[in-house]
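Quick check before the chapter quiz. The format below is the same one you will see on the exam, so make sure you can read both the input and the output lines.
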Amino acid sequence: MTFSIVGRCAETGQLGVAISSSSIAVGARCPWLRAGVGAVSSQNITLPALGPLILDELATGRGAQEAVDRVLARNGYSEYRQVAVIDAQGNTAIYSGSRALGIHRALAGEQCVAAGNLLADDIVIDAMVMAFQHSEGSLAARLMRALRAGQEAGSEAGAVHSAALSVVDDLTWPIVDLRVDWAEQDPVGELEKLWTAYQPQLQDYLTRALNPTLAPSYGVPGDE
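Here is the expected output.
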């Protein structure tokens, strides 16, 4: 019910996830990130707990694949799960259980891993990896291009209705956390609109958080 791209910026160390699904509010359940540790997409018949548990394992210094294997081994129904992981060094791990839904595929690339299920075609995942690897700009922008490439390559077999984009840097909170919880049509397009609106303000929100004395005006009534 989902297709996703999990990636890392080799220059900045940022980690991120872009994801879309036929299910409502995919951003509330599937992407999990921790600055300096890793990023996880826990999908298919989703167990949200897998995300933070895998990040906990990565934080101890375990490798990406070992972290996935250990967490799946102690949680039931692993045959229903699909997981894509990248750690802070760019190492990746993927898992698709034997009962992953429909056409499913996972593929690791350079500083990225993409995964999906109930796909229109397995080339969706290849298109996402290729788009990420051949894109320039910020990590968030590259993740969005990869998600759009997956959409254009066929997306899910049916309509998708939600999408999300999340990126962490070196702070304890995400520097980007945008969600389209439900759209009748083209949630990826709606997410692109959100990113286009948010991107010019991203640094302003960081400045407001870290040094309010330098914070630019919000430009709303009452804000002198």
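If your answer matched, good. Residues 111 and 132 are 9 Å apart (CA to CA).
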